[in-house]
Amino acid sequence: MKCHEVEYEIFGDDMQVVEVELDPNESVIAEAGAMNWMEEQITFEARMGDGSKQDEGVISKLLSAGKRVLTGESIFMTHFMNAGSGKKRVAFAAPYPGKIIPIDMAAVGNELICQKDSFLCAALGTEVSIAFAKRLGTGFFGGEGFILQRLRGDGMAFVHAGGTVIKRELTGETLRVDTGCIVAFSPGIDYDIQRAGGLKSMFFGGEGLFLATLRGTGTIYLQSLPFSRLADRVLAHAPRAGGSRKGEGSVLGKLGNLLDGD
Question: What is the enclosing helix (H) or strand (E) of 258?
Answer without folding.
Answer: helix 250-259
